[in-house]
Amino acid sequence: MQQIQYSSGDLVADRRAFHAAALAAERAFADAAEVMAQALEVVPQWVAGWSLLGSYREAAGDIAGAVGAWLELLRLDRSGVFGARLKLAAHGALADTRPEPAYVEALFDDYAPRFEQSLVDGLGYRIPDIIAAAVARWMAARGVIRFARAVDLGCGTGLMGERLRPLVGRLEGVDLSANMLKRAERKRVYDRLEKADLAEFLEREPAPADLVVAADVFNYVGALDASVQAIGRATAPGGVLAFSLETHEGDAPARLMSSLRFQHAVAPTLALCERHGLAIVEVERVTVRMDRRLPVEGVVVVAEKA
């Protein structure tokens, strides 16, 4: 449930919003939505308020009401920081499923302080270890001792970087979230960190990378064509791409979930890699993490630049 991020600027509306949040904490979502709607009658231009109203209505099972709130959010939130487009698309109210960079950035800026404890301790997240082991197997099979240059896409707080550091000469990390990058910097495992969109970062980099890693990143990208094409161009001949996916068994290359994360079908993703010069070396079925005590299934893929 998204928290109140900004004051409405009106004391009465703020009091009602905090009352709504207290009701939501008690799982009285319908009552929370009613009180939040009252707050928005006072301040109808409050962007964060519309986001909260939509989330309360969704939790109460009032999907039509949630869609109405998110349509108003879409109109007001020009930057896309509250992810109205994805929320509408997840409920079939909008065909456009392109993630809004401002939404992803805000999501992880907010998540950064509790990211590692929540993901690793709370959800059993092990993808960095699994990818590092897969990369080590490739190195052993090819007789590679060390990579000259590696790029950690969506590096976050540096969980993947810690595993990669012993394997590479130069390690670079890129992420949309400034708060995540600050925490990664404290670990002192990266030679360079940059705040940027992943595909744009790769497109403008003149030097090829010997290893490109995307751990738990494509779940926030959706359609992977542009990203895989950029990775293919940025990977040196003989270099390696290692990445994880949350997967589904349908035909659609990417499927947006109610969590606003994307699941990907394995076969179309592997074909996309091959199309951009990345030959598949290994596909390992894994449990990505737990969600509501249920395993989230996925794969870890290693591909080699021809």
Describe it for me?
The strands form 2 sheets. The chain has a 7-stranded mixed beta sheet with strand order 3-2-1-4-5-9-8, sandwiched between helices. Helix 1 runs antiparallel to helix 2 (29-42), helix 3 packs antiparallel against helix 4 and helix 4 (63-76) packs antiparallel against helix 5. It is of the alpha/beta class. It is elongated, with a radius of gyration of 21 Å. It starts with 10 loop residues before the first helix and ends with a strand. It is built from 13 helices and 9 strands.
What secondary-structure arrangement, pairings included, does this model have?
Layout: H1 11-25, H2 29-42, H3 47-59, H4 63-76, H5 84-90, H6 101-111, H7 115-122, H8 127-142, E1 147-153, H9 159-164, E2 168-175, H10 178-187, E3 192-195, H11 198-204, E4 209-214, H12 225-234, E5 235-246, E6 254-256, E7 262-264, H13 266-275, E8 278-291, E9 294-305
Parallel strand pairs: 1-2, 1-4, 2-3, 4-5
Antiparallel strand pairs: 5-9, 6-7, 8-9
Helix pairs in contact: 1-2, 2-3, 3-4, 4-5, 11-12
Briefly characterize the structure.
With 306 residues, this protein is an alpha/beta fold. 46% of the residues lie in helices and 23% in strands. It is built from 13 helices and nine strands.
